Write a sequence for this structure.
């Protein structure tokens, strides 16, 4: 199963490696060959690959019972990261509102820190809880600063409650996606993965082009997102893409538990979930801000 989600991709590779280690001419043949070999020579202990906990010779070995990741572990770690993000958001909001110059610095530093820490945690082989916690705090500061900026745009057009609406929309969307995944109404299949990969690639190109266009005043400074009905449809597409990306995170958590990954990996799974929620919230903020700025 191929996916653009680095967290899910890592788990997919581990599952494939474990499966490949058990393939051969047939179960009976392999069992007989193993029995003969065991009788002739003692089986050597597996050599650690040096890539992390419970990984030997390229195959992931489930952690002992009691040390495996559980759904509760992921929920607790997610709650911790969310709490850090909320505290950081309040700090970012206060710093940005204190002075215009400080607000710009907070947005830039928060954005760069969030991107760098996000990439490091996504591709780091061995999970690092301190770095993930730092990402949660940094992303919170960034969201707080950006939220204040968007709120000022909305207030200039007599549009109140933008940030609250974006927060509520994010939570409602999360709940709906979790319900659809849990009930099996929407299933993460190979076809679903392929569609998501293509959609994410296309959206990334459009978003990059829109950013460049915004520098030239296209769409009132919003880029392609501010170009009439087409821009609004593009915003809605971004919201939908971020929402359905939650399905990839739910599937990652499901596979991680099924594979018996070490409890430490719950930090990585929670991190992946927070990354998607940050993206979804930003998409809602932009959508509501553009609607506000377009009001008479």
């Amino acid at each position: 199963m191929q996916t653009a989600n680095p967290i899910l991709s890592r788990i997919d590779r581990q599952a494939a490696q474990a499966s490949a280690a058990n393939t051969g001419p047939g179960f009976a043949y392999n069992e007989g060959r193993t029995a003969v070999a065991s009788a002739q020579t003692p089986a050597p202990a597996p050599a650690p690959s040096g890539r992390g906990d419970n990984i030997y010779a390229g195959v992931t070995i489930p952690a002992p019972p009691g040390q495996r990741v559980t759904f509760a572990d992921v929920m607790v770690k997610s709650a911790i990261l969310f709490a850090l993000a909320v505290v950081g958001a309040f700090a970012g909001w206060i710093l940005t509102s204190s002075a215009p110059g400080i607000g710009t610095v907070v947005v830039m530093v928060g954005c760069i820190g969030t991107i760098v820490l996000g990439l490091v945690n996504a591709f780091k082989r061995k999970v690092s809880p301190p770095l993930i916690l730092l990402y949660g705090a940094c992303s919170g500061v960034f969201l707080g600063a950006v939220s204040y900026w968007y709120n000022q745009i909305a207030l200039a057009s007599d549009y109140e409650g933008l940030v609250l609406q974006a927060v509520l929309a994010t939570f409602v969307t999360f709940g709906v996606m979790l319900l659809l995944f849990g009930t099996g109404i929407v299933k993460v299949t190979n076809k679903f993965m392929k569609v998501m990969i293509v959609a994410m690639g296309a959206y990334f190109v459009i978003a990059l082009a829109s950013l460049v266009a915004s520098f030239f005043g296209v769409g009132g400074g919003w880029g392609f997102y501010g170009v009439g009905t087409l821009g609004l449809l593009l915003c809605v597409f971004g919201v939908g893409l971020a929402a359905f990306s939650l399905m990839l995170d739910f599937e990652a958590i499901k596979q991680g538990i099924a594979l018996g990954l070490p409890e430490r990996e719950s930090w990585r799974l929670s991190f992946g979930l927070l990354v998607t929620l940050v993206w979804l919230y930003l998409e809602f903020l932009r959508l509501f801000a553009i609607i506000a700025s377009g009001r008479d």
